[in-house]
Amino acid sequence: MGNIKPVLILGGSGQAGSATAALLRRWHPDLPLAIAGRDLGRAQRAARELGASTALTVDIQRSDLGLPADSGGYSAVVAALWDGRLSGLRYAQDHGLPYLSVSSGLVDIATEVVAGAQRPGAAPVLLASHFCAGTVVLAALHCARDFGRVDRIRIGAILDETDTGGPAGVADLERWSTATTAGLVRRDGVFTWVAGADAETEIASLDGTVLPAAQIAVLDVPSVALATGAPDVRCDFAVGESAGRRRGGAASVEIRIEIDGADHSGEPLSVRRCLVHDAGQRPLTALGMALGVERLLGLRGDAAAPGVHTPESLIDPAYAAERLAEIGAVFADASAVH
Q: Under a CB-based contact definition with an 8 Å cutoff, are residues 324 and 134 in contact?
């Protein structure tokens, strides 16, 4: 890694942050990491387990994060927690460092977009507050690779009720639901808010179990729609008992991906896949974050240029699919499930 400075992970001892750090350590054994958490002892334990890592506490109420001026500096800032004051982003911009966030969601990204637009040359800002930090978007784009024209995309996620991402994940969901209970879809090319009965639907698990679902406000809809040009896009979410727990095992996650359109010769084409991970959403979220860090720093491809980015604007879906297979995710045929 030469003289690369540590990646500062805010919330690095939490579920998403620690799993991301573990992936980065596996991929890049010499990449230094700085694990920042509210509980210094917990951060120190995480750092010891990772190796080549340091532990520290930060104050996200301060624009300088409470870090000493002689701290030695960092190579990137990862916000694996909700940072309502945007202290992490401001610190990254002030020091010209790549920044990644995953907790804003569609309803909260306005402040990050404005901050990035006001200082476009300061640093690359990766907004990865999609479901599973953009991994689902990349999976959908991978499934759409053989299409010449995409007419319709439906993503249906089944999340186990015991797999909501820990205290930070629960807090994010509560904050988003306070902002809006409506869902965002694209219909006939128009991005549209839907609520009440219009947002209600069902999702079928691979084992045939049907769960009630709803459309919610997620960044996945505009990311997938604008990347493919599909005029009709929706993302449905169901929370309940997952197939993994129904089998007596751990909480699993299923993401059903349905795509309709035409191939490059104009012939009708449909794809029905289901992205499954037996360990739930955490590995997928960590993967999305790790892929983002890798790309921001130029550890895979060129380093990202300053400006505002989304996962699909930086990360190759085919490469993401390879990494998905490495962490135990499977693309199953869902054509027989309705």
A: no
